[in-house]
Design a protein that fits this description.
Radius of gyration: 29 Å
Protein name: Chloride channel protein
Structural class: mainly alpha
Membrane topology: Multi-pass membrane protein
Subcellular location: Membrane
Shape: elongated
Number of strands: 6
Strand content: under 5%
Number of helices: 25
InterPro entries: CBS_dom (IPR000644), CBS_dom_sf (IPR046342), Cl-channel_core (IPR014743), ClC (IPR001807), ClC-type_chloride_channel (IPR050368)
Strand order of the largest sheet: 1-6-5-4
Keywords: CBS domain, Chloride, Chloride channel, Ion channel, Ion transport, Membrane, Transmembrane, Transmembrane helix, Transport
Low-confidence stretches: 60-64
Helix content: 55-70%
Length: 594
């Protein structure tokens, strides 16, 4: 049977090469991956809603005010799945996709198709304070990657189709095809040309049609604008932009601080226990932190802040608007903590939707403060709720255009384009200057796997050090005499540089042919001069485990050297030459831009 399938695939590939051009096949594949990614997103939502309905309707635990213990059960189930089935820690969805595009040619393992569909619903369905967008994107990207590998699609086109799948998943979840395309461009740093634009458009349309087919006209936010932009509110939108910028900086710093704290716990069991208890305490005090939070956003948009807050220990005081403001601000503060704690405890999910929840709370808080200061100002709380979401998205993931178009599309709020642009751009500019990297990109930047719109940096990020390391150098020992060195190494080498290594393959120094050229034929020195007397330190070292290609290029520039030794785990492994590095760079640049 496997041979029969292989033969069918081979026959199909031969037929395809003869009858369908590469461009047409890419367009067909973009529709296919858009549909499959949309299907994955719809499945993810339905599985999660089924779990939530089962818990709320079957167990009726929410009526007994015991819902805050549910995340511990969900995290435990995810822990068991990871330990016995997945067998590797679950990686952050978008970061792992960017790493795949940067270092693996868009290759993702097949288990990334179904793992998000299991782990994320267990996390979110049981109340984990994370979102479903990241897992949906990861599953769709994995489907696209494996289909591309099956049909022998080259690495560059495979990377484009992975971005197409991501656009399809986002379009399906939010029913916002334009924002989905922009997200793929901003986050995955695609060059927006007609070669990439049409596949992204086809995948995005395919994803949103999949959503309509399976979910009908169901929308995330049942809200339509009743108030447009008023010029007198411009200053307040600027103020909101500044506020969302500082909230974005807080969100990002808190994320990494909590993850760093949980690294102290070596065992996943301790992380689960501490994280589960912390989440339970936060949910008891602030119920809207439970799950994704779309119901919370909808209630704020409807102007029902009491329903948005739910039952809290402070219900007796919510008749006071300033208590309501304080509770909403508490959600702004603790959403980032609850989300990151869910991740740190072993949960699976995304950061995009928690960012929207936090932004909606902050926008609503700002509007309520303005309206209740007693200064005669009156602004639309629903509009500020929407624009607060855009400000947080722009600041946290450094994607201002995605933020603007997403909020405009999902609410029909094109009348708010001007305030969306004001708030999102201010939030982005302040956050970008304060933080070089986002939650998605910080760890990738450390290992040189970050994709950027800067072509030079992009190409360097796509290069692999293994491709430029040369090992055909004759090594010498420090105790070798000059005669031994000439006879055993120099006479047998085509290179003019010789690494000096000890018994443990540790680099002691180097000898360049020019160092010995003056006296290499003086036989009187053959037995009296030793390698250790001739060697000298290289102008710089390249460290395999820590240096990325951008740092390697900088070391060549700063040292002026033509060859630099590579050290891996404290041992010499070879040299990188400037000529080979530049040749590899030019080839990669040609392949990337053609």
């Amino acid at each position: 049977m496997p041979n029969k399938k292989k033969n069918l695939l081979t026959r199909f590939l031969k037929w395809r090469y003869k009858n369908i051009s590469n461009k047409t096949f890419v367009h067909i594949m973009s529709v296919v991956v858009g549909f499959t990614a949309g299907l994955a997103a719809v499945s993810l939502k339905n599985i999660t809603y089924f779990i939530q309905a089962l818990l709320e309707g079957g167990i009726v635990i929410s009526e007994n005010q015991l819902y805050f213990i549910l995340p511990v059960f969900g995290l435990t189930l995810v822990y068991l799945y990871v330990k016995f089935v997945h067998k590797k820690p679950i990686q952050h969805a978008v970061s792992s996709i960017i790493f795949s595009l940067s270092k693996k040619g868009g290759l993702l393992k097949a288990k990334n198709i179904y793992t998000p569909l299991i782990a994320a619903p267990l996390t979110v369905g049981f109340g984990g304070s994370v979102g479903l967008l990241g897992p949906a994107v990861k599953s769709g990207a994995a489907i696209s990657s494996n289909l591309s590998r099956l049909f022998h699609i080259d690495a560059k086109t495979r990377s484009l189709l992975v971005a197409c799948a991501s656009a399809g998943a986002i379009s399906s979840i939010f029913q916002s095809p334009i924002a989905a395309i922009i997200f793929a461009v901003e986050v995955f740093t695609l060059d927006l040309t007609m070669l990439s634009m049409l596949p992204l458009l086809l995948a995005s349309i395919s994803g949103v049609l999949t959503s309509y087919f399976f979910l009908g006209n169901e929308v995330l936010f049942s809200f339509s604008l009743s108030e447009g932009f008023e010029l007198k509110d411009t200053f307040f939108y600027i103020l909101l932009g500044v506020g969302t910028a500082f909230a974005s900086i807080y969100f990002t710093k808190m994320y990494f601080a909590i993850l760093e704290f949980f690294k102290r716990f070596k065992s996943p069991k301790y992380k689960l226990l501490v994280g589960g208890l912390a989440i339970g305490i936060m949910l008891y005090a602030i119920p809207p932190l439970y799950g994704e939070g779309f119901g919370f956003i909808n209630n704020l948009l409807d102007g029902d802040h009491i329903e948005a807050l739910g039952k809290t220990p402070f219900d007796a005081y919510t008749h006071n608007i300033w208590v309501v403001i304080a509770l909403l601000f508490g959600i702004t503060i603790f959403k980032a903590i609850a989300m990151t704690t869910t991740f740190a405890a072993g949960g699976a999910g995304g950061i995009f939707i928690p960012t929207m929840v936090m932004g909606s709370a902050l926008g609503n808080v700002v509007a309520k403060v303005i309206n209740n200061l007693g200064l005669g100002f009156d602004v639309s709380e629903s509009n500020f709720t929407l624009i607060g979401m855009a400000g947080l998205i722009a600041g946290v993931i450094h994607a201002p255009l995605t933020a603007i178009f997403l909020i405009a599309e999902i609410t029909g709020g094109y009348q708010l384009f001007v305030p969306l642009m004001i708030t999102a751009s201010i939030s982005y500019l302040i956050t970008k200057n304060a933080l070089d990297y986002t939650i998605y990109t910080k760890e990738l930047a450390k290992i040189g796997a970050l994709l950027t719109h800067n072509k030079d940096q992009m190409v360097l990020g796509l290069m692999e050090m293994d491709d430029v390391i040369e090992t055909n150098f004759k090594s010498v020992h420090p105790e070798m005499s000059l005669g031994q060195m000439l006879h055993e190494s120099v006479s047998k080498s085509k290179r003019n540089i010789f690494p000096v290594l000890n018994e443990n393959q540790k680099l002691m120094g180097i000898i360049v042919l020019d160092d010995i050229r003056e006296f290499m034929f003086d036989k009187k020195l053959y037995d009296t001069v030793y390698v250790k007397n001739l060697m000298h330190a290289p102008p710089e070292h390249i460290f395999y485990n820590s240096d990325n290609m951008k740092q390697v290029m900088r070391k060549f520039q700063d040292s002026g050297a033509w060859n630099l030794p590579v050290i891996k785990d404290g041992k010499y492994v070879g040299f990188i030459s400037k000529s080979k590095l530049l040749t590899a760079y030019r080839r990669k640049l040609i392949n990337y831009t053609r």
